[in-house]
Amino acid sequence: MKLLPFLTVLLTAAIPCMAVPGNAVNPSAKPGKTARPNIIFILVDDMGWGDLDSNWSQENLNGRTVGRKNEFKTPALSAMAREGIQLRRHYSAAPVCAPARASLLLGVHQGTSRVVRNNRFDHPIEDSHTLGSVLKEAGYDTAAIGKWGVGGGGQSNGPVTGGPHQRGFNYFYGILDHLAGHFHYPSESRDIFEYNGYAPNPEWKNIKEQVPLTAYSTDLFGARAKQWIMDQRKSARKTGKPFFLYLAFPAPHGSLTVPGTPYPSGGGVKGGLQWVKKNGTESANTAFDPKAEKDKDTYIYPDNSRFPNEVAKRHSTMIRRVDDVVADLIHLLKDLKIDNNTMIVFTSDNGPHNEGGADMKHQHGAQNPQFFKSYGMMDGIKRDCWEGGMRVPTLVRWPARIPKGQVSLQPGQFHDWLATLADAAGVPVPARSDGVSLMPTLTGHADKQKPGIVYTEYNHGGKTPGYKDFLGEHKGAQRGQQQIVFVDGLKGLRMGVKDADKDFMIFDTLKDPQESKDLAASKPELQARMKAASLSNRRASHPSKTVFDTALVPAVEAKGVPGLKWSLYEGEFPWVPDFRQMKTPAVSQGVTQAPSVKMNGPRKRGVELTGYVNVPEDGAYTFYLTTDANKGSKAFVRLHGMELIDADKVYHPGTEVSSDLGKESNPVYLKAGLHPIRIGYVGTAGSGSTLTLKWKGPNLPKQEIPVSAFSHSPDGK
């Protein structure tokens, strides 16, 4: 079916050009004219929900009050909570680091991440839109400092093809591979890399020899972040560019390694951590403290020395060190007079660990999450899809826009951050993103928040630990193939899945965060919807085959009338946007039933088509799309909530792409009947603009999808 052209009248009519701030990028616009914030995204490693002191305040909001004998303070993070918003029901993408980071950076949940799922440590994320590339396109200076872990090399045994410098970041300083995050004095045993995209001849360099062995990773990355911000602000006097900093600390992951010195006094421009170059090396000033070599891995924060075991002292000190860096960064923002319009996000990649890490030089046993109730009032830890393994500590501070002292219980997930930061930066949300902007919630307008998707799948052969405060049925629960889907605000969870028709346990995690009462028996209709949602929002991934991949996605019950609905938008679109999240309305709307004409006119436009495609019989289907060859033509197709065809970031106009999303055959398994379809197209209206969809299926050779297969709901549902 040639879905375009069909808008000749509209595209050649004298429709006035419309300004679309917040939804389109105009490369010729002068920088610095809008109130785009600077953005710092801080990600820590394996810090549990219960390790954040502020989460224990107002316990009546947590759904369950529990006794907590041991606690440690995080004063800077507590101040962030008072000065911004706590997201107490925010979920990681997965209960382990590599897939969580992949989904965060790409803005997709684990059902549509193409490469990194489960334990695919160090495999390079696909070349698609990322936090870095989207904000770079929005006119930001972008930097990633700290742990990457999804670029290649390391345990992937492959080349570095998805490094930060290849995924939208102008600058990188840190560790590339997953295991390097276990070494909190990284230059002792692992490589450290730097890339400066602003250099005359940028190169990816291993700078391990320039980093002293006394450099503690939290201090090293904190000091480098401070220096990069100060350098960027100097250049911004000329460029007017805001900045985006992705700061990923390895703490408090594994090995329980602590600094050798107290945190330097003061903070900001002149105090706290400072970047020092000395005798051919460069690092944080703490690495050059006379005590650093002698006392390496010995410093315990004084207030935490009261704990009765070394493990607790070290775990709490590692987090307190990160807390000190947060205080130092905020001090810096105030010194630079940019604090008011800087957005800081703080979160963790998954629930708390109980492992010792791989650094045998600094081995102090494994953390016991029970001591601090690092999982909060929930059950589960890292690698569990119970709440304790998935729900992560999350704070957001932006004095100019976020009201003080908010606590949100709205569910959200990692893939929402790409949409949120795009919204804050004034660019459209890419169609490939599975997320929704959380800006309404953050800015005190939760009543205007669009509902999002919470979805997880993760396969691991271990068991939930048998901690004494976990429920009996949770102790020793076999993990296996786990899957989470939220429907109507309730959580569906199934573990050890060997059959795609296995029932979900259903929990109201707002009122029952320990997941003590399974509601499944009383909700058969919801059970069916959860099963449908669990299949219709995901795609198979070549490296990670599951029992869900060949299960037939159910059709929907709907009454369709011929044709697809269309909505026309004007603007400069750097990618195919999620038109549902556009802030400006369509300039025209209608229904196309017999597309047979050509687009004309010079304007740059975007078109969204929505409705149903009628699948003739059960089976495996492959879809194909071709746009016109006009420069800038792009398209993106979803079927239900799943990604069907991506002809966006790396697409060459005029070529055919398929729903295989890879080199191997990867069909979509569908039940006969109506399936919701959403097609986005952007380009310049001109002679010969087209968009063609084909399919191949059971008893169906590859051919254009007939016009008669498309329909829409007349009532708009």
From TrEMBL:
Keywords: Signal. Residues 559-709 form the PA14 domain. It holds the Pfam family Sulfatase. Residues 1-19 form the signal peptide. InterPro entries: Alkaline_phosphatase_core_sf, GAG_Ulvan_Degrading_Sulfatases, PA14/GLEYA, PA14_dom, Sulfatase_N. This is N-acetylgalactosamine-6-sulfatase. It comes from Akkermansia biwaensis.
